[in-house]
Write a structure and sequence with these properties.
By secondary structure, the chain is mainly alpha-helical. Helices cover 80% and strands 0% of the residues. Helix 4 runs parallel beside helix 6.
Length: 167
């Protein structure tokens, strides 16, 4: 809790409770201690804004539950999803892409046998370019510049999908 800047008895108790839940749900997949797992999930929750929106306990629970669900329902490991989510944290928050969308992309790449490191590096390069050169990517997506710009603004994952389909 201290590493995440959590203060106050109630907040620390919530953190400990969510750490225990996360360890039970993900401990086998992620390895490490309850503290390490909860700290990782807490950092992600903070970066993606979930801690501010839901509080630390619920944010860790939501983050861990999403990873656990994706790992349980795909061939992706919880570790790969967590790694991808961490690697995408900076650019995805700037591109207004939600944590759950990033986690789903991570599961998709891992399930299809893609290297998490390569996939995240590629997306970290591509996402800013979508904004920088909207006209070019609009053509690739088969859209007008205005329609692509609007889609990129309101639903960047759909814009990314449109470019992938068009390519």
């Amino acid at each position: 809790a201290g590493r995440l800047g959590i203060k106050g008895k109630e907040n620390i108790l919530g953190f400990v409770t969510s750490a225990d839940k996360a360890f039970v749900a993900l401990g086998d997949d992620l390895g490490g201690t309850a503290e390490e797992i909860a700290t990782s999930l807490g950092k992600i929750a903070g970066i993606y804004g979930d801690e501010q929106e839901f509080g630390i306990e619920e944010a860790i629970n939501k983050t861990g539950s999403a990873i656990n669900s994706l790992a349980s329902n795909s061939k992706a490991s919880a570790g790969d999803i967590l790694d991808f989510t961490n690697r995408m944290a900076g650019v995805s928050s700037q591109a207004n892409i939600s944590q759950t969308d990033i986690q789903a992309l991570g599961a998709m790449f891992a399930e299809s046998g893609q290297s998490i490191e390569v996939a995240s590096t590629t997306l970290n390069t591509l996402l800013p370019k979508l904004s920088e050169n909207q006209e070019k990517f609009a053509k690739t997506a088969g859209m007008t510049s205005e329609a692509f710009s609007e889609l990129l603004k309101n639903n960047p994952i759909e814009a990314l999908k449109a470019v992938a389909v068009g390519a």
